[in-house]
Amino acid sequence: MLAVAVIACAAFLTSRPRDDSMSARQLFEDPQTLDVLTSNVISLDQRDRTEWASVRKEVESSAHGVTAQVRQELPHIYDELDEIQLSKRQQVAVLRHLRSVGDPRVRSVGQDIMDAIKETMTEDGDKNVLKRHLVEKLGPRMAEVRQLRDEYYPYHVGGPVDKGAALEASHLDGMRIVKDFDELRLRAVKLTEVRKLDDEVVIPVMTPGSVAVTTPSASFLGSMMTYFKDFVTNFTDTTAQFNPFNDDDAPSSDGTPGKGTNGEADYVNGSNNLAGCFMVAMKESTSDATDCVTEFTGSFSGRTFR
After folding, report:
1. Higher per-residue confidence, 293 vs 128
2. pTM as predicted
3. Sign of the C-alpha dihedral, residues 32, 37, 41, 43?
4. What's the rounded Cα separation, in Å, for the pair 34 and 41?
5. Average pLDDT in the chain
């Protein structure tokens, strides 16, 4: 089955361009992508919209610097991005994903999830305690989460909350952070036991995969460009689990749900990145956790509405 999946993915990624298609590299350098990144920076940095032109110039310069850096340091990835042809629907899906990163509501929901993780750890609780905290924090916000689903995760449909049920702890059993919480908690405890300075416990920060958490950005522009570089360099791996990136799984133009089965399409890829985000939640400040708060929100939406 794995071989079949790899062959199918390769066939998809190298499919013949259609009239409305463009390569992933072209999309990353396209003005519409720069516009999305500009909106994100203005939103996150709470700048006035009158500053659009100046911020746009900063973003364009920084984004070109990112792609130039990838081309110089990772030429094989840069060349691969030229071979990946995206349909119009897939372009929309990628831009929608990037746009969600700058939405304060998405970040707020993700922050609530990270706060629930921290509170559960403080109480030395297990995954059942985590689920209770998640329901307490996000149950009252389900109308808002539904709005986010409609805007950013329209393929999350058919789940219990989507059918009108109130959020319950059991709805979260399949959420990866819940499933792996007890193992991650034990790992974190072991790490803190061996890393101490005097009487102060040092929470180690793990940075596997694309999660960049060790160097807080000097500005929201820097944070956004770090996220953008990670997204560009990990594009193929990310989209392997990115539901609407595959036309077969994406909703049709009239909004009809796709037939995909990936319930956590927007979630952090793999257990290593999950561990990284888990450790980010243990930090006092998570302002540089763009990757994690966004993906946690997508995961929560996937498990409650799908």
Report:
1. 128
2. 0.73
3. positive
4. 11
5. 75
